[in-house]
Specification:
This protein is mainly α. The protein has a single domain, classed as Amino acid/polyamine transporter I. The chain has 20 helices and no strands. Helix 3 packs across helix 16, helix 14 crosses helix 15 and helix 18 packs parallel to helix 20. The chain is globular, with a radius of gyration of 22 Å. The structure holds tryptophan (TRP). Tryptophan binds next to helix 2, helix 3, helix 12 and helix 16.
Length: 522
């Protein structure tokens, strides 16, 4: 079944150097997940309680699944769906298109959040940081009246400005993707070093604030109660998949542009360590600021980065407030290189499958994508009667995020391990990886991908589903007046539409030879 074709990477594009690939893959991994979601998860799950499960998740799930995804890409030289069909047959392609369809949902709201970050960046030069916050901070469930970042944020999303920013982010994403690996590589050579530089500036600032070290201690002091809590483990595993860009075929697409003899153990470790290193540094910078200003980032995932941090920065003396602009600029460039990879994962799948031009593949992703991103950002979805609970767009985003974030990546990872471990054969994968690697994966790796990871992922997915179904459907606690059917309708819509997309695309004929369209994006 596993007929391997020669790697046609020259036709589809190829990374110019190993550095280019590492920058692109780590640029994909480092994103909003490392700054916005990591910090808010770590906070929600009790700081030090999160750290150990997260660390274990890196070695037990993160690095092994990345090795699998990189290998699927280099073995076949194709993106996820076509690669899976070559390696494990049609059911592999169904699974892959399902996850690619989920990636579309994630990209929609990911880019909306980036649009908001861009608007806040512009705001940092205007009214955002002019009025220092009054701590303690109250969550988004009870927005305060005072002039502060929360009020600024809610005012901002009620205007048309985010629509412009969302369009701008989509425009930049497509521009970076226009000539494939060539333009991606050029962009990440600038953006990835820049995001490290900005993060280092922020951490130095955070740690030199009097009291900043207390926040760091909160983040790193182990907390045994939390470690006994299954929720913490579930959160840590989902966060690890998101942070490393796993489960949605993104890393498969990037690896398909590598030469066949790339050392995938080395690449996986490099990308994972760069990603998690950045994440811990970001955590230190953010927790330092939280503690200095006694801020309480209650509410949704976004509260911490969009309300608490700018409020802290607003307390800085004049001049130093520039850190607000740094912070949002950092969010934008880190998120942009991740959005680029999400779109590339989808577009290259369509290009490989349908044999269409790059321009057409990008358009097929962008059109539905931008409609979705606009839907979350549309000021018209704001219903004044929902004032107690924020806005409908934000609530929609939170609900879609819950289902897409908690399920699709982990289900994608589960499919990968089962199909590659059992159908292709773990031995075959291991032989392929070991051939080009200085380190060798021992037979334990078979046990890992055939049993350990599938069992862990199944337990986490089943546990989350149980909680969602038994404790009231996620989102049903929102006070949505008039829209009370939405929390139930959204997951059904998400699930059905991804299944239909997967069915339709899998049953289209596969174009054997994609045209040489990278140098000719007509
Ligand atoms: N890893 C990115 C972040 O941390 C987001 C991302 C990019 C992603 N590509 C992905 C998440 C693929 C899941 C799957 O922000």
């Amino acid at each position: 079944m596993a007929e391997l074709t020669p790697n046609p990477a020259e036709d589809r594009g190829a990374w110019k150097s190993k550095l280019g690939f590492i920058l692109a893959a780590s640029g994909s991994a480092i994103g909003l997940g490392n700054i916005v979601f990591f910090a808010s998860n770590a906070y929600q799950y009790g700081g030090g309680a999160f750290y150990l499960p997260y660390f274990i998740a890196l070695f037990v799930l993160g690095i092994p699944v990345m090795i699998i995804e990189f290998s699927i890409g280099t073995m076949t030289g194709k993106s996820f769906p076509v690669a899976m069909r070559q390696l494990v047959g049609k059911r592999g392609e169904y699974a892959a298109w399902w996850t690619i369809s989920c990636a579309l949902f994630i990209t929609m709201y990911y880019i909306t959040i980036l649009g908001w970050a861009l608007t806040m960046f512009v705001g940092a030069f205007g009214g955002l940081l002019t009025d220092p916050a009054i701590a303690p901070f109250t969550g988004m469930d009870t927005p305060t009246d005072g002039p502060n970042a929360t009020v600024y944020f809610f005012g901002m999303i009620a205007t048309w400005a985010p629509m412009l920013s969302v369009a701008a982010i989509w425009g930049m994403t497509i521009l970076i993707l226009w000539r494939g690996t060539k333009t991606i590589e050029a962009a990440v050579r600038i953006f990835v070093p820049l995001m490290w530089l900005f993060m280092i500036i922020l951490i130095v600032r955070g740690l030199t604030l009097p009291g900043g070290v207390d926040g760091v201690l909160y983040l790193f002091t182990p907390n045994m109660d939390g470690i006994m809590d299954v929720n913490v483990w579930q959160g840590a595993f989902a966060q690890m998949f998101f942070s490393l860009s796993l489960g949605l075929g993104t890393m498969v697409a990037y690896a398909s542009y590598l030469p066949k003899d790339a050392d995938q153990i080395n690449n996986s470790m490099l990308v994972s360590f760069l990603n998690c290193g950045f994440e811990y540094i970001a955590g230190v910078a953010i927790f330092a600021m939280l503690f200095v200003y006694a801020l309480n980032p209650a509410g949704t995932t976004l509260s911490l980065s969009f309300f608490a941090i700018p409020q802290g920065i607003a307390n800085f003396p004049f001049g130093v407030k520039a850190f607000g602009a740094f912070f949002f600029f950092l969010l934008v460039i880190a998120g942009l290189t991740s959005a680029v990879s999400l779109v590339e994962g989808m577009a290259s799948s369509l290009i490989d499958k349908l044999g269409i031009s790059r321009a057409k593949g990008l358009t097929m992703v962008m059109v539905p994508g931008i409609v979705g991103s606009f839907a979350f950002a549309l000021p018209n979805v704001i219903d004044p009667t929902l004032s107690g609970d924020g806005t409908l767009g934000l609530t929609l985003l939170d609900i879609v995020d819950h289902w897409a974030f908690r399920y699709s990546l982990l289900i994608g990872g589960l499919f990968e391990c089962i199909l590659i471990g059992w159908i292709l054969g773990a031995d075959k994968l291991r032989a392929f990886v070991n051939k080009n690697s200085k380190f060798n994966l021992g037979p334990w790796f078979n046990v890992q991908i055939k049993f350990v990871i599938p069992i862990i992922l199944s337990l986490v997915i089943a546990g989350t589903l149980w909680q969602d179904l038994s404790g009231g459907l996620y989102g049903s606690t929102y006070d949505m007046e008039g829209y009370q059917w939405l929390p139930a309708a959204l997951p059904v819509f998400w699930f059905l539409s991804t299944v239909v997309m997967s069915y339709v695309l899998t049953n289209r004929p596969t174009q054997e030879h994609a045209p040489h369209n990278v140098s000719n994006p007509a």
